[in-house]
Amino acid sequence: MGSHIKNTVRDEGVLRKRVANLFSKLAKNVRSARRMGDAVCGGQLALGLYEDTLCSNRLEISTPSNNLGEFLDLISCTVPEGDLYLFGGVLRDLALFGEKGFSSDIDIVVDGDWDLIYPKLIKLGAIKNKFGGFRLMRDDIPIDIWLAKETWAVKNNLVAYRGIASLLDTTVLNWDAILMNWRTKSFLYKQEYFSELNRGYMDVVLERNPNPLGMLVRILRHVILKDAKTISYQVLKYVYRSVNAYTYEEIVEAEYSSYGNSHIHMHMYDMFRTQSFSINECVNADGICLSRAKQLSRPLI
User: Using alpha carbons only, what angle is made at residue 87 by residues 260 and 205, rounded to the nearest 5 degrees?
Assistant: First the structure.
């Protein structure tokens, strides 16, 4: 986030191509580490076309390669009556910046029989994370995989689960509210998703989340690094309450821990903490004007 040129997609067709390009690159990296004669699941790589024969081949593999696409195929084939979805951050980063902008872990949600998947994850060395999902590595990328109806917001009765689309109401930010069905390569999102992404309009979907400090850091970086052009009044109130819950030192420490660098300056922290700007001057049809925030995001000389 912020280290790449913003190149926002305008529709799901372009985003689908970016997902395919990312997985194609990852698959190529794995193939280059294999001997020339190695077979890849009958010569196919699951980058976009999903065939019934793929599952029959995949289920014969007790331990899939390090390739992320092959792993997702294996899990998808394990729940033939359900579906597997990419969720949130990976799609957001690809939509905003393209393949070169992807730098996060990957969240996967399963809408299907978890009892079929659980033994497979354990066999593959997955470790239960503190929020109830499982984590493992593929292509040197951390993968978190969850049962959809057991995600944090649903489990804590903040959002009622009425099907996979309910997860669009569980993200903190509107930019994360998107799912991609791994089997069909179709997307689920709200009507205004791509419009808001292209306008740089940031809004809060659900304030409660299991990592409030991490979310505060991400919002501030979106503002400072100019991914966000306008923020809603809900975001402004959220940041105001959040910065008053943490010291500046705690925020910077969390930023370094997640990103390895720091862009959040003390004057930005103080501005949001004290609301030292005029709301009346900044309100417009799209949300809150960020000119004052961006001015204060740069170090004073």
Answer: 85
Name residue 296's amino acid: L
Q: How is residue 217 written in tokens?
A: 């850091």
Q: 12-191 has which fold?
A: Beta Polymerase; domain 2 (3.30.460)
pLDDT digits (tens, 9 = 90+) for 188-214: 999 999 999 999 999 999 999 989 999
Give how far Cα 274 sits from Cα of 133, 152, 238, 239, 244, Å: 38, 31, 13, 11, 9
Question: How many whole angstroms separate alpha carbon 146 and alpha carbon 131?
Answer: 9
Q: Which of 138, 187, 143, 185 is nearest to 167 (CA)?
A: 187
Judge contact between 7 and 93, C-beta under 8 A: no
pLDDT for 88 equals 86
pTM score, two decimals?
0.81
Q: Which residues of the chain have pLDDT under 70?
A: 1-5, 28-66, 276-301
Distance CA 186, CA 140 (A): 26
Could you state, in order of their start, the residue ranges of all structural domains in the chain?
A: 12-191, 211-296
Contact 39, 260 (CB under 8 A): no
Task: Give me the pLDDT at residue 64, please.
Answer: 52
